[in-house]
Design brief:
It contains 19 helices and 20 strands. It is an alpha/beta fold and 565 residues long. The chain is globular, with a radius of gyration of 26 Å.
Length: 565
């Protein structure tokens, strides 16, 4: 049966090749002209344990996974047990593992040993899936062989190509009359398959990052791994520190020397960095912190997703000082807001945070080539100020932002100090000077507000239902609104790509004009809803929460909305 959207799930153990097959399937779909959304579900293990790779494809853009499975490619029995209940009752297909003894309607047992052998089970299954979906077998074989060709494994590439073709031919023999399960796509325009972490790395490079220090922590590590790929060509220094405390302090040293600097971590690692966050504010140095959220407390669910570190980032660091917190909701905004984070840090001379999560970090989507706009090499702080002596690194200004010079690049002495200090950077305990310096730093909040990214509104005026989101829930929320509108229930969305500082004049009117307003966020304590209420006095009529480690889907949101009603 032909349908406009289709979700294919490949399930198996780590090490069985499901990621290779899944990425290849996503690329074939994209190159065939379909839009894709890829969600990965994996355990914190090198081998073994149940993992899955879900590819949702459609003739129209898709920005979220779905609950139901249309084609299940099960590489082991656990995958059948884990996903069988989600297989669509409207013509769903289960490709059983070779050794399976199960038989039920809509299932196919593929004779992998006869077709290509156990080593190539996943890519053989890719060929079977391509036949079921109605994809070009040559394109599938080309994509999978190129995957190994890039690794200079010519023999493996050829055998993988043969395995794909064998799986495809077998499926067409067994079920020769199966129609394409997706309608023909519009001829493909050049698009990129990219996930959030890749886009963050490219955004940092476009912003002129020159130094990154980190300690590995899922799901943030691949941000840095993608920086490393281009580090030599673009003159970026990347250092793996002995721990997160060292990493955070290292980026401040680099910022003091004039380099655009960043670090990337997750909640547990960021908890160790909070003293350095306060040091960033005291020394008035620009630094960018990327925090990829995962469920806590402690190590929680290391490879799952959640939005429960908002308050940690909002209030991290002792003392009072301004900050900006960006929360991109798409791959494209990851790229754009990473550039804005660096520019914002420079403009305010202080810490700026970009908050993502495992879902956005590792979910592939098809996007148009990224727009560099008028991106230019960012200017460095001047080496001298024209002869003023002494230089005042913390001079009082109307904006709170002081003139900045580089150390050892001119005749002026450039001092940075972590204690309270005078305008020339020397330690002081004078109460009057203390008040002046606190007020100076707090005046930077106006600089951040002037640059604040307004929330994105989609929908008609005064809707019956307004769904509010931040971060990775954007796609699922917008699709939920589309489905409600199709059913004749007027719904709109308001998405926040920046959650701090909040500027009520940008959104409060929208909140008040809707008949019913619901906040959708991935935590148990409604952190963003409470932030909105504390800053504006506006209380949401309802909240849809998810904190089981899985990403939002439109079906999940719709079920909770109807249950509330």
């Amino acid at each position: 049966m032909t349908q406009n959207t289709l979700q294919i799930v490949i399930g198996g153990e780590a090490g069985q090749g499901l990621v290779t097959a899944g990425e290849a399937l996503a690329k074939v779909l994209m190159r065939s002209g379909y839009h894709i959304f890829v969600a990965q579900d994996y355990r914190s293990r090198i081998r073994g344990g149940h993992n899955s790779f879900a590819v949702r494809a459609s003739i129209t853009p898709v920005c979220a996974p779905q609950e139901t499975v249309d084609v299940l490619v099960a590489l082991d029995e656990v995958s059948v047990a884990s996903h069988q209940s989600a297989v669509s009752q409207n013509g769903g297909v289960v490709i059983l593992p070779a050794a399976s003894s199960e038989t039920f309607p809509g299932s196919l047992r593929v004779p992998y040993p006869e077709l290509a052998g156990k080593r190539y089970e996943a890519v053989t299954a890719l060929g079977v899936a391509a036949a079921l979906i109605g994809l070009d077998p040559e394109l599938a074989a080309e994509v999978i062989s190129f995957h190994f060709k890039a690794k200079e494994e010519a023999a493996v590439a050829q055998e993988s190509r043969s395995a794909v073709n064998a799986g495809y031919a077998w499926a067409r023999r067994v079920i020769p009359a199966v129609p394409p399960r997706l309608p023909p796509a519009v001829p493909a325009v050049p698009r990129l398959m990219m996930n959030g972490n890749e886009a963050l790395a490219l955004g940092a490079l476009a912003a002129g990052v020159r130094f990154c220090a980190f300690y590995p922590m899922t799901p943030a590590t691949s941000v840095v791994m993608n920086l490393i790929k281009h580090a030599d060509a673009l003159g970026v220094v990347v250092e793996q520190a002995e721990d997160e405390i060292a990493a955070a302090n290292m980026i401040l040293g680099a910022a003091y020397a004039g380099a655009r600097s960043m670090t990337a971590t997750s909640g547990g690692g960021f908890a160790l960095m909070t003293e350095a966050v306060s040091l960033t504010a005291a020394t008035e140095l620009p630094a960018v912190f990327v925090i990829a959220q995962r469920p806590g407390p402690a190590t929680g669910l290391p490879t799952r997703t959640e939005q429960s570190d908002l308050e940690l980032v909002l209030y991290a660091g002792h003392g009072e000082f301004p900050r900006a917190v960006f929360t991109p909701g798409s791959v494209e905004t990851c790229f754009r807001l990473m550039r804005e984070a660096f520019d914002c840090a420079e403009a305010s001379q202080g810490p700026v945070f970009l908050l993502t999560d495992q879902c956005l970090a590792h979910s592939y989507r098809d996007i148009l080539p990224l727009d560099l706009g008028e991106a230019q090499h960012p200017p460095s702080p001047p080496a001298a100020d024209g002869g003023q002596e002494p230089y005042l690194p913390y001079a009082q200004t109307e904006s709170g932002v002081s003139p900045r010079l580089l150390p050892c690049a001119g005749e002026q002495l450039v001092i940075a100090d972590s204690h309270e200090h005078t305008a020339d950077g020397h330690v002081t305990e004078d109460p009057g000077e203390r008040v002046r310096m606190v007020d100076k730093r707090l005046r930077k909040l106006a600089v951040l507000k002037d640059r604040a990214v307004p929330p994105e509104y989609r929908g008609g005026e005064a809707p019956e239902l307004l769904l509010v989101s931040w971060g990775s829930s954007k796609g699922a929320v917008e699709e939920t609104a589309e489905r409600l509108n199709a059913e004749g229930q007027p719904a709109a969305t308001l998405h926040f790509d920046q959650v701090w500082p909040l500027c009520p004049d940008q959104f409060l009117g929208r909140l008040k004009s809707a008949r019913r307003t619901v906040c959708v966020e991935g935590n148990a304590t409604h952190q963003f809803a409470r932030l909105i209420r504390s800053e504006t006095g506006f209380a949401f009529a309802g909240v849809v929460s998810r904190y089981d480690g899985r990403p939002f889907t439109p079906e999940y949101i719709l079920e909770r909305l109807r249950h509330e009603t």
